[in-house]
Request: fold
Amino acid sequence: MTTVTVPAGSLFGPDNLPYGVFSVDGSPPRVATRLGDTVIDLAVLLGDEVFARPTLNAFMAEGYDRWVAVRAELAERVTGEIPDEAVHPAGDVTLHLPIEVADYVDFYASEHHAANLGRLFRPDNPDPLMPNWKHLPVGYHGRASSIVVSGTDIIRPCGQRKGKDDPAPVFGPSVRLDIEAELGFVVGTGTAMGTSVPVEEADRHIFGVVLFNDWSARDIQAWEYVPLGPNLGKSFASTISPWVVPLLALQPARVPTPTQEPRPLPYLAMEQPWGLDVDLSVRWNGVEVSRPPYREMYWSPAQMLAHLTVNGAPSRTGDVFASGTISGPAKDTRGAFIELTWGGAEPVDVGGEQRTFLEDGDEVVITGSAPGPGGARLGFGEAAGRIRPAVLPATRTG
Amino acid sequence: MTTVTVPAGSLFGPDNLPYGVFSVDGSPPRVATRLGDTVIDLAVLLGDEVFARPTLNAFMAEGYDRWVAVRAELAERVTGEIPDEAVHPAGDVTLHLPIEVADYVDFYASEHHAANLGRLFRPDNPDPLMPNWKHLPVGYHGRASSIVVSGTDIIRPCGQRKGKDDPAPVFGPSVRLDIEAELGFVVGTGTAMGTSVPVEEADRHIFGVVLFNDWSARDIQAWEYVPLGPNLGKSFASTISPWVVPLLALQPARVPTPTQEPRPLPYLAMEQPWGLDVDLSVRWNGVEVSRPPYREMYWSPAQMLAHLTVNGAPSRTGDVFASGTISGPAKDTRGAFIELTWGGAEPVDVGGEQRTFLEDGDEVVITGSAPGPGGARLGFGEAAGRIRPAVLPATRTG
Reply:
């Protein structure tokens, strides 16, 4: 038996207890939690087969009351003696995509981000927001299969792009490859077709939270997106953190959203919509270039889920909805490089180099932390990815 | 042992042999084919456990060479003596969703449809097509969990809508509920992240074809869709036919697409892009109101799949991509009621009633057939759905 010591200042103290999926030396992936610098095998610790699976889905599907019960049991067990075979140094394990993703929807919930993009794309329009923006959380479906775990290399996508003055589109590797620093919300239990999740019940359905990087090819996106929205500019990859922090752990991080005016329609209205006080950090080749503050987000997670299902769309265990780029009011809180560099016009200093969009070999690491009880801070690990050169599609065989 | 007699004129003759999933008297769902009015249990007929599953996915994942081999074996076996326990009258079985849907993308591949919607939504624009439309197959991701099998009731969705002169949006049941008559293409084998499907290899990846009705709430869609595309206006339900017709069966139905001018970029260019000569029929409460011709579609299935993956987006067994509304040049070939009734301004006669959009209790049945060898025609069954009244979301508990 072993006891785990948590280093001072660890983002994985006993108030976090996130869930992830690990393997060691090629063993089959299984569910774990993390305490300090130690990864703890939950199937061994708790003797429950639901954790001897390659994703969290089976556990999540057991529902809210089980999430509460397991978390309480975990909190007690991890501070005591733990079987040696359940304990692995964090540096020894491989972390995997923790969930089997069902449907994936990306929202656009930051007013600062939406307004910045409006100013960039529609400079002559006096109101940078579209008329629907303050009435509903605007979102679109993305490609579930393209969600990968932190550390997966990102291959620069190819596609069509056309500058305003080009006579015709050209094909090739994206030259405006960007990030979007977001939070992703993992749906633990879904709803049947024809029903919806009221805003007050969202936290019985949302299992947990991940860091999310929605890699974006701005040139592909700009040419393709009328009138049906982004598609190939986004569908090549999104990176999530390996640790899913339970929404239950983020109770101390709840903060009011900014004032919502006009008042949302009743299905979106809450006495006090809650956001989360998560501070993100974006490092570009090791240099911190932005600190996006999730607390600034206009639409709350509960409102996003209520909107997503209000038309009766079925939801499922493993659905992920992401917040959209997190941007605050200050320049150094913008969560996408297109905003940070104002469309490429204002390069940022990255370790002495003036940079606008991503170059091959660049690495972006997003981290984040939230307040826990008693001054502790809780972390998610990181959402990291390095850009690999484009692979041109096979030439014609004919 | 039994032999199956195919009635004259059956759309399920021995040249079709579609795949579906059935159950009888509450038994677990299994894979079948259909011959005439008989459903044949393939696990029994072929003695292969891959067909004793509730979806086609495991079989599809075995790949193109197996699809060819099984089809050849089936063609031989169904004309001979068949074990009694493999044979069920079509009227005795329940048909289920035949595939587990992975990602779902809906295209917009009919020039007539895109131009009609352009004229309706942007009447002052001299060119009804967006500038990208003839350069790439425009598409967007939809909600995979909302795909249901023919016969599933469709609950009228609720959502926000705002007329041009309304001061603010209102919430309630959609009042412009519509259909989109399409074909859906089922991906049998996928591709790894970072790779793509060349146009010449599409038919090694596309397993088969279904009828597809992308139910659409035009009022919800019109308010929500800027700038990220349709979302809740589409995500409540799409209906597919229970039978997946193998692409291998549709070889005689291949026809050239309309002339593509300007010439597509090399990754989309084919010596002769092939479409499919499938004639659809849309019946509204039993009255045929449209006959959409798939042969008129501008972008081919191979081009849609090549585009979908050219950025390196991973594809998977069970992915579905649909064509978008099929509309021909004549009014009575328009595959959506918004076009057929010109935005509601020109009602159609439905059994003596003047109708524009769908009312509660209405039923829409889409059928289709394609030429087989020697003058035979092949069918898909039907994509049918009846509109049930809206269910308002639960009122606030607070």
